[in-house]
Amino acid sequence: MNYYLGLDIGSSSIKAALVEVDSGKSIGVVQEPKEEMGMFAQKNGWAEQAPLDWWLHICNAIKSLQKQYNVDKAQIKGIGISYQMHGLVLVDKQGNPLRRSIIWCDSRAVATGNKAFAEIGEQKCATQLLNSPANFTASKLKWVKENEPEVYKQIYKFMLPGDFISYKFSNTINTTISGLSEGIFWDFKNDSVADFLLEYYGIEPSLVPDIVDTFSNQAQVDKKGAEESGLAVGTPIFYRAGDQPNNALSLNVFNPGEVAATGGTSGVVYAVTESLSAKESARVNNFAHVNYTKGAAPKIGKLLCINGAGIQYRWLLNNLAVSSYEEMNTLASEIAIGADGVCLIPFGNGAERMLNNKEIGTRIVNMNLNNHHKGHMCRAALEGIAFSFVYGMEIMKTDGITPSVIRAGNDNLFRSEIFANTVATLIEQEIEIYNTTGAIGAARAANLYKGDFESFSKTIMDNDHVMTFMPFKDKKPYLEAYKNWKKELELILNK
Questions:
Q1: Which of 205, 223, 420, 458 is deepest in the core (most CB within 10 A)?
Q2: Boundary residue ending a domain (246, 276, 305)
Q3: Is residue 443 included in any domain, yes or no?
Q4: Band of residue 127 on the pLDDT scale cut at 50, 70, 90
Q5: Is 262 found in the same domain as 236?
Q6: 261 lies in the same domain as 409
Q7: Strand pairing partners for 48?
Q8: Res. 228: pLDDT tops 90
């Protein structure tokens, strides 16, 4: 039996998956390290990790997979890589990291990006970068230039986390258009590297890695990479993408109108479009999707993040007298739609980009201490998080997204019928639930260098489809509850 290896480099752990080449069937997934990876924060709002730590955990994960499933290195026929987006890795001529990686949740470059947005011009940024330079990779690189000139002088190439891991396997440095776009290095109007941004930031074009196709034979494992990882020399790397585009791919989201949603600690709505509209560029990010190709109709992934999602429900689990999410869902199901007027505003996980970076916190309103109990809290929480997804979809619609189907992973929130039914009914679209992960998706994507997207879609339907939530015909009680919630949110926002 032959296999593809999928790697998902998160900020808390590395996951590695094996899938069968022929059927796409998942064989197994392992996680390294067993406890969470640490982050280094020298100052408030900073977050760094050592790239060589990722590599160490990846090598351990591969060996653990091979041992657990009795797989020989010769049976692994290709590699797919998914990685935490927006991270900055800097290497010298020998390929050694010059400093720790400044990762996605590090906010030191916010002022740098905001200044660039104002000085380059909001219109130019929106039409050519489809985003504000904000706190993305390009702005982080500019921060290093200004604050660590000795480091900057030694840079041979900058990379994203997935580019660095590919390099460690192969001793070959390259990147993708999708990767450059997530760092805000891509000019969509001219379909080329954003030279005007490099020039504005004073970054030499020579620091940009060579570009390869997302689905292609990007590099091969070399002798050193083989010795360290336990893979065979010559094993090809066939695919690489940031975690959100990769999550969409894992859920079979490639075409305009298809939407991928996740409901973990934070929530994400990722919708594919062929439009280069970026009028919501302050609240929604736009990246080249995995199937973006130069010269063709653009495939853009619009990404909207909701910080206050699953973390709100987990907080209730930890602080109410309940033992499990199942118990909370049962309590909630005994309460009518609208939670008898109780509203929960779930934005207690920092600033919300979709609310123009306001930090409004969590609020519980209309609670009557004589009539309401923890069941009302559970219902109001599930509805409040669902309403925040619907609110986000409304923002997406103003930016030209017309959803035709929503596909979601089988994670905590989407396991709740109340949550999934509320979203499906209010946006009048079915929600398909799939049991998959980023590492499995990346492993399967290793087969897409052949260009057979049809059989890739079939693999996902055959192996992963769990169920579909259909919108209810009677939308009225849901609409009333949503209007009530939205009214409370707008009172807070307009203070």
A1: 420
A2: 246
A3: no
A4: very high
A5: no
A6: yes
A7: 40, 102
A8: yes
Identify the domain containing residue 336 by its residue range. Answer: 252-430+470-495
Closest CA to 57 of 108, 3, 12, 113: 12
Is 90 exceeded by the pLDDT of residue 485?
yes
Looking at the structure, do residues 281 and 353 belong to the same domain, yes or no?
Answer: yes
Residues 180 and 296 in one domain: no
Encode pLDDT of 341-398 as tens digits. 999 999 999 889 899 888 999 999 999 999 999 999 999 999 999 999 999 999 999 9
Q: Measured between alpha carbons, how far is 323 from 460 in angstroms, rounded to an integer?
A: 34
Burial of 204 by CB count in 10 Å (0-12 exposed, 13-18 middle, 19+ buried)?
exposed
Q: CATH code at 198? A: 3.30.420.40
CB 272 within 8 A of CB 255: yes
Q: What is the dihedral of CA 51, 55, 61, 62, to 10 degrees?
A: 150
CA 336 to chain centre: 34
- Clarify whether residues 222 and 308 are in a common domain: no
Same domain, 156 and 202: yes
Please state the domain count of the chain: 2
DSSP 8-state code for residue 266 = S
Residue 104 neighbours by CB under 8 Å, 6+ apart: 11, 47, 84, 85, 86, 87
Q: Looking at the structure, do residues 225 and 374 belong to the same domain, yes or no?
A: no
**Distance in Å from the first CA to the final CA of the chain:** 63
Phi first, then psi: what are they for 5, rounded to 5°? Answer: -105, 130
Backbone angles phi, psi at 236, to 5 degrees: -80, 145
Question: Residue 447 falls within a domain, yes or no?
Answer: no
How many helices, marked H, and strands, marked E, lie in the chain? 17, 23
Tokens of 356: 């123009």
Rounded distance, CA 160 to CA 51, Å? Answer: 10
421 is a domain residue: yes
Please name the amino acid found at residue 200.
Y
Q: What is the mean pLDDT of residues 43-70?
A: 97
Q: Which residue has the tokens 């990010």?
A: 285
Nearest by Cα to 371 from 339, 345, 343, 344: 339
The two tokens of residue 494 are 């307009």
Pick the closest to residue 485 from 353, 385, 371 (CA basis). Answer: 385
Written as six digits, the tokens of 246 are 């990769």
Q: What string of DSSP letters covers 53-84?
A: HHHHHHHHHHHHHHHHTT--GGGEEEEEEEE-
For residues 333, 335, 340, 343, the Cα torsion angle rounded to the nearest 10 degrees is -30
454 lies in a domain? Answer: no
- DSSP notation for 453-488: HHHHHHHHHHHHEEEEEPPPS--HHHHHHHHHHHHH
Please say which residue of 183, 212, 246 terminates a domain.
Answer: 246
Q: Is 232 helix (H, G, I), strand (E, B) or coil?
A: coil
Between strands 157-159 and 89-91, the pairing is: antiparallel
Rounded Cα gap, residues 450 and 236, in angstroms: 13
